[in-house]
Amino acid sequence: MKIDPFRLERWLLEKADIDLGGGGVAKLQLRDVMPQMSGETMLKYGRTCGSDALRSHVAEWYGVEIENVLITSGTSEANLIVNLALLDQGDEYFTEVPQYEQTTGFARMLGAKVKPFHLIEEKGWAPDLEELKERINRRTKLLFLDNPNNPTGAVMTQEEMQALCEIAERVGAYVHCDNALRGSEIDGKPAATPEFYERGVVTGSISKLGATSPRIGWIVANNEIIDRCWTMKDYTTLSHCGIGEQIAEKLVSNRARYLKRNQSIKEANTKTWATWKESNSDLVTCVEPKGGFTVFPRYKNRLGSTKFTERLLKEEGVMVSPGDQFGVERHLRINIGTKGDTLSNGLERIGRFMHRILK
Fold it and tell me: Where on the phi/psi map is residue 188: left (φ > 0), alpha (ψ -120 to 50), or beta?
């Protein structure tokens, strides 16, 4: 098995004065969720499929039954297990572009033939379903997408999701939707997911609610897929974080409170971003996101995005993520889920850098 380095995650380990490279919202503190957690809490395994309480809360959020939910160690393990359970060497695997490459990179390691279908920037990063329809075939095993999309913040509509599942159904392919950004939609309505489709699989977690350290995620699918994934989980982490599961129960059951908090952070930063973008329209253009906590602007310079971000970090101390690590050049992923003056200070330095390199 040939394993390629996960470029983005290694890049995000670089030290920066101002970090705008990530894709989530400002993190909660334990006291925000579990202010009176007992010191007598047992440090033990839980049920390997997840507690009934947490599974029932996730099931309610997605409108499914409890047996359609498997708890995992974050969305990362959920995505890993889905690929391990459903993919075989030589299968065709279609992924949207741009996209977060974690699950795609693992599909490639398993020997799947990874092929793109594109989101069209000029159409608000809408999926090119005609391209997909023309390229999909009987060897296609799985279609993968993020909804809301990471990094663009685009949100696929219910009609588009239905059409994509119909394309997949023609060849008997699975549809895997990474729904980690659920709850970040600007209109407050959960983005479309394929749980209605017999071969639909949804993965998600509490990370984008503002809690990354508990490492709690889930898979939502039909009973047969859940059983296959549970069998695989016994060979990966076996059991997830027990204390993390208790935190997740509180977060998901009281999610409206935390979603409101996250939206207020993003709304303030969206105004900051809009003001900066308008003042620097000679430098960038951007499709405004409908979900997520990032913007994905196109910048007006020939410098490749990796070189751009490396120079920006070295010269201005600002971390952003290069577009080529999402499959699209001359774009940047900029986090707008930060707190305080982090975003405005970072944008000021980015603008200064851009004006300098344009000379």
Answer: left
Contact call for residues 68 and 226 (beta carbons, < 8 A): yes
SS3 332: strand
Q: Domains of the chain (ranges plus CATH)? A: 7-27+256-354 (3.90.1150.10), 40-255 (3.40.640.10)
Cβ atoms of residues 119 and 126 within 8 Å? yes
Round to whole Å and give the CA distance between 167 and 91: 17
Residue range 282-291, pLDDT digits in tens: 999 999 999 9
- Token pair in block for residue 290: 């409908």
Q: Of how many residues is the chain composed?
A: 359
Q: Report pLDDT for 132.
A: 97
Provide the pLDDT for residue 359: 62
By three-state DSSP, how is residue 76 classified?
helix
Q: Confirm whether pTM is higher than 0.90.
A: yes
Strand partners, 115: 94
Q: What's the Cα-to-Cα distance from 13 to each of 9, 16, 19, rounded to whole Å? A: 7, 9, 10
Give the CA distances from residue 298 to residues 7, 282, 294, 329, in Å, rounded to whole numbers and listed in that order: 20, 11, 13, 8
Spatial separation of the C-alpha atoms in residues 18 and 69, rounded to whole Å? 38
pLDDT tens digit sequence for 294-315: 999 999 988 999 999 999 999 9
Q: Measured between alpha carbons, how far is 163 from 286 in angstroms, rounded to an integer?
A: 26
Owner of token pair 């009934």? 52
